[in-house]
Specification:
Chain A contains 11 helices and 2 strands. By secondary structure, chain A is mainly alpha-helical. The relative contact order of chain A is 0.15. Classes of the chains: A mainly alpha, B alpha/beta.
């Protein structure tokens, strides 16, 4: 029996709209839940004093620093490498079996659980290279972890730049590098930034890859060779060891706000960039 | 097949094409094409879709190099020098032989940034020099009076015909010798088309123009010489008036009278 289009239309709107509302509801619920439990603890003192007694008392200042430094190092290493690789693959090579294998490899790497990167980082950076549990080991491990994401998003962004821009650029006597520098990268930038944001987001929330490589020291690091603890790791330890659930939620709330702030900044930057170019 | 225009050597030929073959992989898109383009003249290439006219056009500034698997045999001479010779710098060649594309394709930048793109690529940094050439180029494309107060406007906000003429101005800025036009009016309305055609008549005083067009009336209106192509072969090539009024080949006659194509 055929259902009348009027009803299928109604049904479609209900199902599609329902899915949207459900998704939003779950998201809002999580954020409200964490903020409600965590925000009462968060204040200036909590953010800017060091943890005491394993985190039972005091604040989260050193973990805040750890959370800023590790993803920063990761992005400083991964972004230039990833963007260069992606530009080389899309602009300088023709599609062959070799590039397909490289692409397949990056896709596989992107899907590997982060704890595997943690183990790799532990064996390679911490032990073999003798960097120990340190910001350097942790940052490099995170860089390896987010590299595939940055490569793939950059590739997509570069491919999305209209072919005609390349043709015009070449037809006006530009070399391939001039075309990449003047036409392709500027036009792909919003997409590339999205990839970088995804990478930052992933490394900020990362625990498994970090705990094995950067360690979990609560002392203030004085160089990249010192161990550090990120907020995500701090939250994990506080909650798992049953040290302090208030401070755990306080840390989680700070983490959520930080991620939100970073994303908003990124959108603002992109908006400004697009406004400036057009 | 070589179809020579009688007396073509009397005036100087800007471009000479000799037994040019082009393959896309195994598919032969051009079959021993031979023709010449005279300096300060407009040469039109006509023929049905897929006949190879755009491919031939793209041989003249080596844009086909960008497509993987393309093989070219024979030679194309610009002022007597083979442009497929290994000593030729392709970027330099493309500055001499510029191209206007089917769809207006300004960069998503300001009007000014579009016009000076080729200059910046060529390493010109001096801002008064850039402004001077931008003005000259916009004037030559009849855009200066329209756009002199809109130089910092986004090029993509302009109407299509102004966008297309902006693309022509952008090309003129690099001071080419030859202008290749690949169906430059197919995205434009009749009035805008007329403007571009008038502009072409003006431009041929300084440049050698080769135009690919689907529109036979356009070829008849603007060109001095016409080549009719079919399935990768140059069927007939000669003075436009002759090709349209007394074609020597049956195939040409069928096409221009609308029996085919």
């Amino acid at each position: 029996m055929r259902i009348r289009p009027r009803y299928t239309q109604w049904l479609a709107v209900t199902i599609l709209g329902g899915a949207t509302i459900l998704t939003l509801a779950v998201l809002v619920f999580i954020i409200v839940f964490v903020l409600e439990k965590g925000l009462p603890v968060v204040n200036f003192g909590f953010l800017f004093t060091n943890a005491e007694d394993m985190g039972r008392a005091g604040g989260i200042f050193t973990t805040l620093i750890g959370t800023i430094v590790l993803p920063l190092l990761a992005i400083i290493v991964a972004a230039p490498l990833g963007i260069s690789t992606a530009v080389y693959l899309t602009e300088y090579t023709v599609e062959t079996r070799a590039t397909k294998i490289i692409r397949f490899g990056t896709d596989c790497l992107a899907g590997i659980p982060s704890i595997i990167f943690g183990l790799f980082g532990f064996i390679f950076f911490v032990t073999t290279l003798g960097l120990g549990w340190s910001i350097l080991s942790g940052g490099l491990t995170l860089a390896v972890m987010i590299l595939p994401t940055i490569i793939r998003t950059t590739e997509e962004a570069v491919k999305a730049v209209p072919k005609s821009y390349r043709q015009v650029s070449f037809s006006l006597g530009a070399t391939r590098w001039q075309t990449v520098k003047r036409v392709i990268l500027p036009n792909a930038l919003p997409g590339i930034l999205t990839g970088i944001m995804l990478g930052i987001g992933r490394s900020i929330g990362e625990t498994a890859a970090v705990i094995f490589t950067a360690g979990s020291s609560l002392r203030m690091p004085s160089s990249v060779f010192d161990s550090t603890r990120t907020m995500a790791v701090h939250f994990y330890i506080l909650a798992r060891e049953g040290i302090s659930s208030e401070n755990a939620y306080g840390t989680a709330a700070t983490l959520i706000i930080a991620v939100l702030a970073i994303n908003l900044t990124a959108y603002w930057m992109m908006g400004r960039f697009i406004a400036k170019r057009s | 097949m070589m179809v020579a225009y009688q007396g073509a050597n009397a005036v100087s030929n800007k471009i000479e094409i000799n037994s040019l073959d082009l393959f896309y992989g195994k598919f032969q898109a051009l079959k021993t094409v031979g023709m010449s383009m005279r300096e300060n003249m407009i040469t039109a290439l006509i023929g049905p879709s897929g006949c190879g006219k755009s491919t031939l056009l793209r041989c003249l500034n080596r844009m086909n190099d960008l497509i993987p698997g393309v093989q070219v045999k024979g030679n194309v001479r610009l002022d007597g020098a083979d442009i497929y010779d290994s000593s030729i710098e392709v970027a330099e060649l493309r500055k001499r032989v510029g191209m206007v594309f089917q769809r207006p394709n300004p960069f998503p930048l300001t009007v000014f940034a579009n016009v000076v793109y080729g200059l910046k690529v060529a390493g010109i940094r001096n801002s008064s020099r850039l402004k001077e050439i931008a003005e000259q180029s916009l004037r030559a494309a009849w855009l200066w009076d329209l756009l002199k107060d809109k130089l910092d406007h986004p090029a993509l906000d302009l109407p299509l015909d102004q966008q297309q003429r902006l693309c022509i101005a952008r090309l003129l800025a690099v001071q080419p010798e030859v202008i290749l036009m690949d169906e430059p009016c197919s995205a434009l309305d009749p009035i805008a088309t007329m403007k571009v055609e008038e502009l072409m008549m003006e431009l041929k005083k300084k440049y050698t123009i080769v135009i690919v067009t689907h529109n036979m009336q356009q070829a008849a209106r603007v060109s001095d010489f016409t080549g009719y192509m079919l399935l990768g072969e140059m069927i007939e090539f000669g003075v436009t008036n002759d090709v349209f009024t007394k074609p020597t080949k049956k195939l040409t006659e069928d096409y221009i009278t609308g029996k085919y194509g």
